[in-house]
C-alpha cells in the first residue's frame, strides 16, 4: 500500500527521503565538516557488512580506507575545500575500486555544512589490473628474446598497455600511441578490420579458446605491416564476463612476402611443390602433384604423405626426416612414390624446415625418366664391358695430361680399372711407355684429328702389341679437352704376321742353302746357325755334335753364332757327357725339339746345366737325326719373348736342309773317292 502525500504537496517527510535513498544500489553517505558520518544508506552499510546505524560518527577512512588518516586526494576533502562537485576513483580496503561523486551541502546562507558521497563500485578493476600486471611481467620474461610486441587491455575501461617492441614494430614513438584500445583499432587495415573484430568478439563471448589471426597494421611510414596476433582473456568476473585480455604481435611482413613468392612458385612451378605439417599431412600442394601421380588434390590432402612411399624406401626417407630436424639449409633425398594406378615414380625431394610454422616446405622433381636413362646407360655400359672383356679390347677416356677419366675393358698388366681412374700413365708404366702415351695425346691435340698407331708394350717381361685409335673430345666451344682411346690387342695378329715373315725368310734361306753346292759343309753349318739365330730372334746359337765314347755318349760344341756378346754362350769347344748335361741333353734323350722358356726353374727340376753354358734365360733345341740316331743338336737361346712351336718348325727346316746338303756332299765325296780308286 503506497502512501500518497497531500494533494499538491511537493514536500517529503524525513522518513520518505530515507526510504528513497535506501532504495538506491549506490552507496550514499552524508558527512559533517569533520568527515564524520551523520547518515548512511542501506547499501553503504552492506558494503562493509554492517547496519547503517553502526557507521554513525565514524570517519570515512575508518570504514572504507587503508590508512589511519584521511587521504588528501579524496573527492570528499576536495568538495569541502572547493565547494564544487568532485569525482574520482578510490581503492578501498577490500581492494575494490569505487568511483566517488562528492557534493558539498550548503545552508540557506550558502555556508558549507557537510558533504554527500554517492559511490559506485567498479567491477573488479583492481583485480583485473593486478592480473594484467602479473601476466605482463611473465610475458616480458618469456618473450624477452622472441622479438614479440606485447599488449594488454582492460575490457571494462578500454585502457591498454603496449610494450616498447609493439610500438617500435610499427615505427612509432610512445607518445604517438594512446594508451587505449582505440589506438590499436585505428591502425587496423580496412580490409582486415571486420575479420579481426569478429575473431575478437567470438573470443570475448567464450566461443573460442584463444585468438590467433594474421592482419595488417599501418606503420608510421604509411606502409602496412603484417602481424601475427595471439591473445587470450586472462580474467573474467563471476558471471563469466571478460575483464582483462593480453596478447602478442609478431612482425611477419617478410614471412608474408616469402609466402607470396612461395604461392607464385606453387602456381607456376613445373615441379611438384608442397607444404607438410608436423603431423605428416599435406597442407598445400600445387597442380603438378595430381598431374604427375594421378591422385586428385582432395585425395592427396586427405592422406599422410608418407603412406605413398615405397616400403623399401621408407627407412632412408625416415633418416632424411631426422636430418631435417637439425639443419636450416635443407635436405636432399630420393624415394619412389606410388601413383593412383599402382605404379611408382622416382621423386627427388629438396625439403626445407619452416620452424615458425612447424611445417616443411618441399620442391619435388619427378626423375623417373632420368633414372630410366641412367639404368639404360648402366646396362649399355655393362654390355660394352662384357663385349670388351670378350674381345679383349679397351676403351678409355683421358684428359690432355693423360689422366684417366674412364676405363672399360679387361684388366691390363695386373691393374684393375678402378686402379687407373684419376691417375696418369706415369703412375703405373715405365717412363718410356708413359711418355709414348702422352706424346700420342699431344699428337691428337695438335692435329685435331683421329690418330691411329700400333704400339708394343712390355710389362713385367710380357710383351704385347696394340692398335690405338684416338679420337679428340671437344667441349661446347669446340676446344679439345681430352681423347677417347680404343685399344685393340693385336698381339696374336702381330705374331702371325711375324711368323709369316719368318717363314718367308726361312724359305728364302732354304733356297739359298740348296744353291750353295760348292760351299764347304763347315761354312754352310755356320751360315745355317746364324740364319737360325736371326729367324728365331735369338741372342745366340750353338751346335753340339753327339758321339759315342768308351765312357758313354758325349756332346761336343763345334760352332756358335751370336748377335752380341752373351754370358750364356759357350766360350770355347768343350765336351760333356749326356748323363751330366741336365736339361740341355733333353733333346738327345727325347729325339725331338725341346723348348725351355724358364731356364732357372727347368734346371732346378731337371738337373744342372753344363758349366760352360753360363746363365741362360730360355732356349730352343732341335735334334739332327740320321737313321733314327741323334748325331747333333742345334740350339738357339735367349730370345726376348718366349719360344714357340713356330720357332721350332723354322729351326727344324734349316737343320733338315743342312743335313740333306751335308749328305749330298758326302755322297759326292764317296763317288770321287771311288773314281780315284778305279
List the defining traits of the structure above.
alpha+beta, disordered N terminus, Beta-Lactamase, 26 strands, about 35% helix, six-stranded antiparallel sheet, single chain
Q: Any overview of this molecule?
A:
The protein folds into five domains: 14-122, 2-Layer Sandwich (Beta-Lactamase), CATH 3.30.450.20; 126-251, 2-Layer Sandwich (Beta-Lactamase), CATH 3.30.450; 256-366, Beta-Lactamase (2-Layer Sandwich); 372-489, Beta-Lactamase; 509-669, GAF domain (Beta-Lactamase). The chain contains 20 helices and 26 strands. It has a six-stranded antiparallel β-sheet with strand order 23-22-21-26-25-24. Strands 2-1-5-4-3 form a five-stranded antiparallel β-sheet. A five-stranded antiparallel β-sheet has the order 7-6-10-9-8, sandwiched between helices. Residues 1-10, 141-145 and 606-612 have low confidence and may be disordered.
Please outline the helices and strands.
Layout: H1 14-22, E1 27-31, E2 37-40, H2 42-46, H3 60-64, H4 75-82, E3 86-91, E4 97-106, E5 112-122, H5 125-142, E6 149-154, E7 160-162, H6 164-169, H7 181-186, H8 190-204, E8 211-218, E9 224-236, E10 242-251, H9 253-268, E11 272-277, E12 282-285, H10 288-293, H11 297-301, H12 314-325, E13 331-338, E14 344-354, E15 359-366, H13 368-391, E16 394-399, E17 404-408, H14 417-420, H15 431-447, E18 451-459, E19 462-474, E20 480-489, H16 491-515, H17 521-535, E21 540-549, E22 552-562, E23 575-577, H18 586-590, E24 594-596, H19 599-606, E25 619-626, E26 629-637, H20 645-677
Antiparallel strand pairs: 1-2, 1-5, 3-4, 4-5, 6-7, 6-10, 8-9, 9-10, 11-12, 11-15, 13-14, 14-15, 16-17, 16-20, 18-19, 19-20, 21-22, 21-26, 22-23, 24-25, 25-26
Helix pairs in contact: 16-17, 16-20, 17-20
